[in-house]
Write a structure and sequence with these properties.
4 helices, alpha/beta, two-stranded parallel ribbon
Length: 147
């Protein structure tokens, strides 16, 4: 949506808000019968986000390494499955390339949600399960997107 009617010069994407994805809620085995949230496919969401047409207003793109807000919302959480550093790297690479193609150098910003949003399963910060994989994927995506 254009930010101009509200007096703003630009918009910024803040995934997972506004993402289209394949819902997998009914296709997975539930470990908790009280779960009333949704399960989404990360790869489909990234693919749809990358395929969005470039708008006629300034929009700064955004990506996320993952999302699972069940620690905050418990049985009403939203979970993205199939998150993996390589899937994140591909999405970020696409967005960096699009940003370079559509925005002047001084406006080439890409936002990552988030560095350490542990309560929503959305973080680049190293952890025991993935080590530095998401940071390494970010480095590789920037190198690939800038080449």
């Amino acid at each position: 949506t254009s930010p101009h009617p509200w007096g703003f010069d630009a918009a910024v994407e803040f995934p997972p808000h506004g993402l289209a994805s394949m819902q997998l809620t009914n296709e997975i085995e539930r470990l908790n019968s009280a779960f009333a949230g949704n399960v989404w496919d990360y790869v489909t969401a990234a693919r749809h986000a990358s395929a969005r047409p470039w708008p006629d207003y300034r929009r700064f793109r955004g990506v996320m390494p993952g999302w699972d807000n069940t620690p905050r919302l418990q049985n009403n959480g939203q979970i993205f499955v199939n998150t993996h550093p390589e899937n994140y790297r591909r999405w970020l690479t696409d967005i960096v390339r699009q940003t370079r193609a559509h925005l002047p150098a001084e406006e080439q910003l890409v936002f990552v949600n988030a560095w350490n949003e542990w309560g929503e399963g959305c973080y680049l910060e190293p952890d025991r399960a993935n080590g530095r994989s998401y940071l390494d994927a970010t480095r590789r995506a920037l190198a690939d997107g800038l080449s």
